[in-house]
From TrEMBL:
This is Phytoene desaturase. GO terms for biological process: carotenoid biosynthetic process. Belongs to the carotenoid/retinoid oxidoreductase family. Pathway: Carotenoid biosynthesis. It holds the Pfam family Amino_oxidase. Keywords: Carotenoid biosynthesis, Oxidoreductase. Gene3D superfamilies: FAD/NAD(P)-binding domain. It comes from the Bacteria. Residues 11-486 form the Amine oxidase domain. GO terms for molecular function: oxidoreductase activity.
């Protein structure tokens, strides 16, 4: 059988392994850590609290189902999920509390009641982003932007008429401020820039298509939490013959001329016809291809933001919270200036709180909750993170305590912190940047590293640092794009 090696078992690497196995390859996945998942791992804290460590939002579940269907399996035999009735609970400093219902009519009514924005105006906006998403997604997300075939595809005929409305020449914030007069709704829509680690005051208006995924398609929750996605796909991969080798970091990608021929670890050498890197492109080139010229222009692209996460066991429950909760800052522009210009954390950061025990009660003891508390922060450039962790913790406690009318600190019974230094050390994400490069300019999508390289045959790239970007759906699409580029071999599944 033709052989493939996948470097890293993040969600993109696992999905690539499944697709290559279906294509007929004998696949080995080499993982530096003791288990699979990359950022999509889990852990427990004393007292009976379970946490998903990284990703917390799940959209486009069909992309997971597709992997099981591709392998001839029934997805529900491996993986189940539900559509959330409430997408997010929003809290503003002025005391406004808005429930973003999944039902568009209920959401529009809530916006009209709480923010004085007419329902019809919001409906028109969501219909517009749906139309633009369907006109452009197959060109910009499902295919390589670095292959001529993409732009000769019939899908381009749908994309071209939509280009003038995509907001390529304006920013997310400017487009949202033109569409709505209420600054709270503008802030709500601006926050979707953070879904790929960007700044809404710099990122192009194109990113305003992101809310379509939640408000028109829906947000979902897997049975057992986000980690269940990785568990189910690894089970599928192993059934297809994929071998996972843990605690075996790759030290070098082997080349013969301009072709990748395998990889070397401290334990073994693996010959392969195809090598797929699920590692961030920066360490892929710097560490694994040290003698090969790197695409310096691509690697110099500005990094995305990172995260500072506090995992708290909380000794009571809060009925006003749901799975996803946002506590906004007073000055959003200043917050992003601190992240991207000043390279630090604002005194009044926006706080995201994820509480999986709302849907998986066993994630916390009875009457308790497991809080995943995240603040967007700059990537690591040598900041005094120990001081920032303590300062930001106090800001978070003050903000959330005020919004909920209850002192939170006395309720914390268990705690763990993950900062950009730890994110880099644990996941090989360069400088802790969660999404590789940011999307803070209108050409960012085209400057992101492609899923292949013309310089090295047989080498492909998946994951959040390459096209089409970070987050669960885009990482899954990166695997699809890369696997479609890999030459096929005789597949027993296809037969």
């Amino acid at each position: 059988m033709a052989k493939a090696v996948v470097i890293g078992s993040g969600i993109g690497g696992i999905a690539a392994a499944v697709r290559l196995a279906v294509k007929g390859y004998s696949v080995t996945v080499l993982e530096a850590n003791a288990t699979f998942g990359g950022k999509m791992t889990q852990f427990s804290l004393p007292g009976g609290y379970r946490f998903d460590a990284g990703p917390s939002l799940f959209t486009l579940p069909q992309l997971v189902d597709d992997l099981f269907s591709l392998a001839g399996r029934n997805p529900t035999d491996y993986f189940r999920y539900q559509r959330l009735p409430i997408v997010t609970q929003y809290f503003w400093p002025d005391g406004t509390h808005l429930t973003a219902h999944a039902d568009s009519e209920l959401f529009a009514q809530e916006v009209e009641t709480k923010l004085n924005v007419p329902k019809a105006q919001l409906h028109r906006h969501l219909q517009k982003v749906a139309r633009l998403y369907h006109a452009t997604a197959h060109t910009f997300l499902h295919k390589s932007l670095h292959k001529l075939d993409t732009f000769l595809s019939p899908d381009v005929l749908k994309t071209l008429p939509a280009l003038p409305e995509l907001g390529l020449t304006t920013t997310m914030h400017a487009a949202n401020a033109r569409a709505f007069s209420d600054p709270r709704l503008v802030q709500l829509l601006d926050r979707y820039a953070t879904y790929n680690g960007s700044d809404p005051y710099q990122a192009p208006g194109t990113l305003n298509l992101i809310p379509h995924l939640e408000f028109n398609i829906g947000a979902f929750y897997p049975e057992g939490g986000i980690y269940a996605i990785a568990v189910s796909l690894v089970r599928l991969a192993e059934e297809l013959g994929v071998e996972f080798r843990y605690k075996e970091p790759v030290e070098e990608i082997l080349l013969q001329g301009s072709r990748a021929t395998g990889v070397r670890t401290s334990q073994n050498t693996y010959q392969a016809d195809t090598v797929v890197s699920n590692m961030d492109v920066m360490p892929t080139y710097r560490r694994l291809l040290p003698r090969h010229p790197a695409p310096e222009r691509t690697l110099r692209q500005p990094r995305s933001s990172s995260a500072l996460i506090y995992y708290w066991g909380i000794s009571r429950s809060f009925p006003e919270l749901d799975l996803h909760n946002i506590f906004f800052s007073q000055d959003y522009k200043q917050e992003f200036e601190h992240i991207f210009q000043k390279k630090t954390v604002a005194d009044d950061p926006t706080v995201y709180v994820n509480v999986t025990s709302k849907y998986t009660p066993t994630d916390a003891p009875a009457g308790h909750e497991n809080w995943f508390v995240m603040v967007n922060v700059p990537y690591n450039q040598g900041q005094d993170w120990d001081a920032l962790i303590q300062k930001t913790r106090q800001s978070v406690l003050q903000k959330v305590s005020k919004a909920l009318g209850t002192p939170i600190e006395p309720l914390i019974t268990a705690e763990k912190v993950w900062d950009p230094r730890g994110i880099e050390a644990d996941t090989s994400s360069f400088a802790g940047a969660l999404y590789g490069s940011s999307s803070n300019n209108r050409m960012a999508a085209f400057l992101r590293h492609p899923n292949f390289t013309n310089k090295i045959k047989g080498l492909y790239f998946v994951g959040g640092s390459v096209h089409p970007g970070g987050g669960i759906p885009l990482c899954l699409l990166s695997a699809k794009i890369a696997a479609d580029l890999v030459p096929g071999v005789s597949s027993p599944i296809a037969e």
